């Protein structure tokens, strides 16, 4: 038997082989052993935050659960950018990020909302939670297979971190003000949860803000606006963050309706413009 055909043997007590994969470095394909530390460490932090959010939500501490989801979203936004800036992108990191997102923005929000408001709904409650979680899984799977084939300026469907914020920040805010869970609140929460899930798998386009380049310069007023926004969010984080999630979630359907209406008007006005141009041409010829 040839040496390269033999299975690698592990000398340790726990048989774990070293990870190997081919990555692109400097335009060349090279084989690496091991995984990149910094971006995967940020992904691991997001995964831990999502897991802690589940524990806090099931324990009834929805304030800590909301903060944990927020931290997971921040870390999830950083790991990809850090990987691109340091040229440490890998297939392992992409798959690890998707699995982390499924826990933090799929499983965690559904269980948090279920623990907060769905007890009076019985089977309808866990059905709403399962619909949201399934939509999150479908959203992440579709995102993975569409990499490199869609316009990078837009996301197709609501991003899972924003959907998680839309669902999780409602218990977060309700816990802050001591909102009583009535049947009406439970049903409205179930509708919101299902609606957030359906937005994730919709074809509505959402701005990715990837055209923003942090290396370049910006007008002075843009920086002043960022400072003011940071102060406003710091004063009322629960209310402001939920409001920002709502506005962003609505932006997709609003943009879709606007584009559809604009195209309809263009189609309706097209024949009129064409007929006018033909009539003016015939008038010129007759004269």
UniProtKB/TrEMBL annotation:
The lineage's top-level taxon is: Bacteria
How would you classify this enzyme at the top EC level? transferase
- InterPro entries xref list: CDP-alcohol_PTase-I, CDP-diaglyc--ser_O-PTrfase, CDP-OH_P_trans, CDP-OH_PTrfase_TM_dom, CDP_ALCOHOL_P_TRANSF_CS
The protein depicted here goes by the name CDP-diacylglycerol--serine O-phosphatidyltransferase
According to the record, the segments passing through the membrane are 35-55, 153-172, 184-204, 216-234, 240-258
This entry's Gene Ontology molecular function terms read: CDP-diacylglycerol-serine O-phosphatidyltransferase activity
The membrane topology of this protein is:
Multi-pass membrane protein
For this record, an example GO cellular component is: endomembrane system
Q: What is its EC number?
A: 2.7.8.8
Tell me the Pfam families matching this sequence. CDP-OH_P_transf
Q: Which reaction does it catalyse?
A: a CDP-1,2-diacyl-sn-glycerol + L-serine = a 1,2-diacyl-sn-glycero-3-phospho-L-serine + CMP + H(+)
State where composition is biased (Basic and acidic residues).
273-287
What is the annotated localization of this protein? Endomembrane system
Q: Which GO terms describe its biological process?
A: phospholipid biosynthetic process
Gene name?
Answer: pssA
Name the principal localization, coarsely classed: membrane
Q: Where is this region: Disordered?
A: 267-287
Q: What keywords appear on the UniProt entry? A: Lipid biosynthesis, Lipid metabolism, Membrane, Phospholipid biosynthesis, Phospholipid metabolism, Transferase, Transmembrane, Transmembrane helix
Its ancestry begins with: Bacteria, Pseudomonadati, Pseudomonadota, Gammaproteobacteria, SAR86 cluster
Organism source for this protein?
Answer: SAR86 cluster bacterium
Please state which protein family the record places this protein in: Belongs to the CDP-alcohol phosphatidyltransferase class-I family.
């Amino acid at each position: 038997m040839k040496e390269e055909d033999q299975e690698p043997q592990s000398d340790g007590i726990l048989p774990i082989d070293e990870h190997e994969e081919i990555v692109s470095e400097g335009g060349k394909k090279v084989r690496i052993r091991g995984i990149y530390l910094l971006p995967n460490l940020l992904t691991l932090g997001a995964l831990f935050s999502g897991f802690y959010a589940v524990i806090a939500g099931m324990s009834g501490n929805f304030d800590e659960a909301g903060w944990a989801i927020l931290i997971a979203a921040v870390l999830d936004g950083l790991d990809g950018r850090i990987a691109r800036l340091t040229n440490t992108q890998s297939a392992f990191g992409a798959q690890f990020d998707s699995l982390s997102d499924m826990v933090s923005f799929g499983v965690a929000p559904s269980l948090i909302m279920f623990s907060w408001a769905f007890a009076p709904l019985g089977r309808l409650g866990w059905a709403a939670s399962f619909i949201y979680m399934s939509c999150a899984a479908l959203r992440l799977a579709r995102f993975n297979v569409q990499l490199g084939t869609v316009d990078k300026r837009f996301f197709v469907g609501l991003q899972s971190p924003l959907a998680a914020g839309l669902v999780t920040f409602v218990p977060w805010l309700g816990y802050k003000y001591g909102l009583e869970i009535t049947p009406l609140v439970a049903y409205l929460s179930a509708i919101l949860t299902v609606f957030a899930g359906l937005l994730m798998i919709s074809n509505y386009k959402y701005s990715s803000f990837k055209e923003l380049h942090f290396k370049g310069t910006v007008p002075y007023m843009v920086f002043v606006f960022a400072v003011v926004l940071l102060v406003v969010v710091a004063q009322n984080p629960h209310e402001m963050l939920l409001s920002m999630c709502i506005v962003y979630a609505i932006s997709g359907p609003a943009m879709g309706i606007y584009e559809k209406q604009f195209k309809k008007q263009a189609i309706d006005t097209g024949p009129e413009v064409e007929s006018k141009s033909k009539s003016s041409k015939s008038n010129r010829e007759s004269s």
